[in-house]
Amino acid sequence: MTWIGLSDRNGSTFSASGIGAEGPMVPPNPDAILARGSILIETRLSPDGGPQTLLSCSKASPWPAAFSVQAIPGGGVAVVAGQPGRDLFHMALSDASVGRADVLRITYSWDAPARCGRLALERPESGYVSLAEAQSPPPLPLALLRAMVRPTDLRRVDADLIYFAISDEIEPVGPMPAMTEATPIRTARGTMPLRCLRRGDVVETLHSGLQPVLDVPGRTVPARGSFRPVRLRAPYFGLTEDIVVAPEQRLLLSGSDVEYLFGREGVLVAARHLATGSAALYETDQTLVRYSQPLLPAHETLNCAGTSLESLYIGRLRRKPAQLAASLLSGYGRATLPEHTHASYRLLKPYEAITLVEMRAA
User: Fold this and answer.
1) How crowded is the C-beta side of 185, counted as CA atoms within 13 Å?
2) Among 159, 254, 319, 332, which one is least packed by beta carbons within 10 Å?
3) Other C-beta atoms within 10 Å of 1: how many?
4) What is the residue-wise DSSP string for 117-132?
5) 289: closest CA among 170, 179, 191, 165?
6) What's the rounded Cα separation, in Å, for the pair 237 and 279?
7) How far apart are the first and last CA of the chain?
8) 20: number of CA atoms within 13 Å, CB side?
9) In 43-101, which ranges are continuous DSSP H helix?
């Protein structure tokens, strides 16, 4: 299935049959457990550097159960789960490189029957990933997870937490696609929506001509935080129609104003830095969103509805066995994956992107 719980400052939803699932609601079994799943949290950390309980919940019936995620001094997070006073599972992932100003994505996944799991820390803005393997994590009662999502006295949610979501799958971490499936892409056979692309299709790239598509990985995620969709509006950025992308999708912008401001032929801008006015807006009417993106032999720039968007960047993922196994591309053999180098274009800082957009809107 998919995501079963989602909570942020604007509301909460929980469905054991899946958020948005069609058909009649089936009353949950009060004794049911989730044998495998994931809890995803996006948050900022308190600047004082002290211990910080990001999310916690405890429930006494139908049997005692508790879960908590804490930021620990010195950098990193700790997870506690199980039955208070009886059998508690603890694990921690220390990481001094995690900045207090960064948005931090925490993913705790467990597979009780397989006696394995993992804890991952990601910085969406930079693509940084840190992993720790979990040994024999316990299953979690659905009653506890439901209480965790609903705003009751049973749970505690830190003010710095942006949102959290619960899945009944082991959610991947690492490189993520960032285009919605309706995005039009120019190919050797004409323009077609991303959802129609398949392995072996040939797409046009800005610098390397026609290139084959190795795969089009996709993932459904909560439409919140660093996954909240951004609508890029035509005719800004050279667009012939509106397109919707993830906040971290990068555009290649060029023109006389770029040369004047930055002394370069082209610059890269993350979509999240453009959502400050009429040229780009955050979408507000979605609970979940599905992103896909073409994986090419090299990191390229694609023509999408008249603007230039980057293809999926995976860097040297194949040289990192643990991260590859935890990623959306885990089914690939290491020898079959390409290696990508960073684009040669400069990536604009937020204030630089805002200056460029304001100049174009003037």
Assistant:
1) 33
2) 159
3) 13
4) EEEEEEETTTTEEEEE
5) 179
6) 8
7) 47
8) 12
9) none
d(CA 37, CA 2): 9
Would you say the C-alpha torsion 302, 252, 44, 276 has a positive or negative sign?
negative
pTM (2 d.p.): 0.93
Paired tokens of 80: 């506690």
Q: Among 185, 120, 198, 145, which Cα is nearest to 30's? A: 145
Among candidates 317, 124, 155, which has minimal Cα distance to 224? 124
Tens digits of residue pLDDT in 185-207: 999 999 999 999 999 999 999 99
Contact 216, 194 (CB under 8 A): yes
- Picking from 122, 125, 176, 129, the residue whose alpha carbon sits closest to that of residue 313 is 176
How far apart are alpha carbons 361 and 150 in whole angstroms?
43
Q: Averaged over 5-9, what is the pLDDT?
A: 95
Q: Which two tokens stand for residue 259?
A: 């040369």
pLDDT digits (tens, 9 = 90+) for 248-257: 999 999 989 8
3-class DSSP state of 15: coil
**335-362: buried (b, 16+ CB within 10 Å) or exposed (e) per residue?**
eebeebeebebeebeeebbbebbeeeee
The helix/strand/coil state of 243 is: strand
Give 161-190 as a DSSP string: EEEEEEESS----SS---EETT-EEEETTE
SS3 (DSSP) at 36:
strand
φ/ψ of residue 283, rounded to 5: -75, 140
